Amino acid sequence: MKLKLKYFFVSIFFLSACQKDAEIPVDHLQIPSWFPEMDIPAENQLAKARIELGRKLFYDSRLSRDMTVSCGSCHQQENAFTDGLPIALGIEDRLGLRNTPTLANIGYTDRMFMDGGVTTLELQSQSPIFTHVEMDFTIAGFLQRIAGDVEYERMFREAYDQEPGAFGISRSIAAFERTFISAHSRFDAYEYQGDVSALSEAEKRGRNLFFSSATSCSECHLPPLFTNFEYENIGLYENYVDSGRARISELSVDNGKFKVPTLRNVALTAPYMHDGSFETLAEVVEHFNSGGINHENQNELIHPLGLTEQEKSDLVAFLGSLTDQAFITDSELSDPN
């Protein structure tokens, strides 16, 4: 039987003589019945010690060159692990490439970043440390800073039976991020738990529009994760300064395509689009109602919708029902330092 968002510790069968806390491996996240199972790499199965190490590292600003930026600086829990900025800022306010994406349910994707340039969370977790416009630092430099830190030394041993190093840093941050499960919005209560009073009348009307062939929203934002993990051009520009997926594939047919973002907690993740060009959900809905700019790679589902003001308002109301208050206040995801 599946329980809620607590970790389920399996039997002593998995005990390892060398890894004290990893002796109690987490079999898998306790994922709600309406969510798919999560694929977790065999070499980095979840364990309490690994998750706690990753959590400590996630919020440690010593990973950045000037010790001002941590993963949690751009991925703020109260904002559903985004930062409220059009474009992310790194150390010394260096301007990043794109809008910061939410980490909600990030463990379900095998293509990181909006262009899918990295294929595992373990690899992704290292990238901001090295990137000039983010932390601009090195693993070696960080290890020098924590040399002699008995707490870190203990945590690395318990998590991976190793001294502090790149192996444990990348894997533990990935393990922590796989615990970012967001599945307890009012939409979930209404849709999957039978609480017919969980949504207002406006939200119900918006829900019906969202899942209708009239808007086709759910063709790409497929529940329960509200993404199909594909790359789409939504007709935002005629000429894209950021080519999106084409930066990786080098294919013209991918120009202007970006990974379809999850809509869970979308009311908390403004501004929107890869470049933060829309400040409100009303602007986002208006864009899709307009039918886009007719870019040659634009998804054919995007066309003028002719929605009324009431219908647009109802759609925005429905998107607000995807906010998961438990997710943004879960103490197990907060800064432990």
Annotate the secondary structure layout.
Layout: E1 7-9, E2 26-29, H1 48-58, H2 71-74, H3 121-124, H4 127-130, H5 139-145, H6 150-160, H7 166-177, H8 186-192, H9 201-210, H10 217-220, E3 231-232, H11 246-249, E4 258-259, H12 281-290, H13 309-320, H14 325-329
Antiparallel strand pairs: 1-2, 3-4
Helix pairs in contact: 1-6, 1-7, 9-13, 12-13
What is the gist of this entry?
31% of the residues lie in helices and 3% in strands. The protein is mainly alpha-helical and 337 residues long.
In spatial order, strands of the major sheet run 1-2
Q: Radius of gyration in whole Å, from Cα?
A: 21 Å
User: Helical content, roughly?
Assistant: 25-40%
- Topology as a string of helices (H) and strands (E): EEHHHHHHHHHHEHEHHH
How many DSSP H or I helices? Answer: 14
Structural class: mainly alpha
Estimate the global geometry from the Cα principal axes.
Answer: globular
Mean model confidence by pLDDT: 92
Distance between the termini: 34 Å
| DSSP E strands, number | 4
Poorly predicted segments: 1-25
The profile of the biggest β sheet is:
2 strands, antiparallel
Oligomer: single chain
Approximately what portion of the residues adopt beta-strand conformation?
under 5%
Describe the structure.
This protein is mainly alpha-helical and 337 residues long. It contains 14 helices and four strands. It has helices at 48-58, 71-74, 121-124, 127-130, 139-145, 150-160, 166-177, 186-192, 201-210, 217-220, 246-249, 281-290, 309-320, 325-329, and strands at residues 7-9, 26-29, 231-232, 258-259. It has a two-stranded antiparallel sheet. Helix 1 packs across helix 7. The longest helix has 12 residues, at 166-177.
